[in-house]
Fold this protein.
Amino acid sequence: MRHLRNGMPQANRRGGFTLIEMIVATILLAIGVLASVGVIDGSEHAAATAHDLEIASYLASEKMSDAAIQASEGQINTDQQQGNFSPEHPNFHWQESVQQGQFTNLYLVTIVVQWGNPASPHSTEITSDLVNQQANNGTNGSSLTGSATGGSNGL
């Protein structure tokens, strides 16, 4: 034991960290690691959702192209139809709604693609006006006009 100038004994101290300092450092490190894992998990979920939305938008566009071909051939069906995209994308389901517009050969076509949990599905929608020009002037074809609206619920 060493003595100070005032005569009080001083314990021999070595350099280093105390047990309390090590426990606090370990707890802070654990909190940082858990927060990082949560951020990574959230990123993976967002990337998967974005990928599914990209697929759904593509599939909706393909169904709209099919409807445009049907309109050009004078075979557009105004009944509501539905199905899935098996075998390539069996978890994606579509609904097609065709309504007669104000004019004789104008149709409002809405395609909704849904995927995910059936109780709370994600969805995207595309809507367009199709004109059957074949019935108007004897030409073969249809024009695709309008706008596409997209979105996703349940994200």
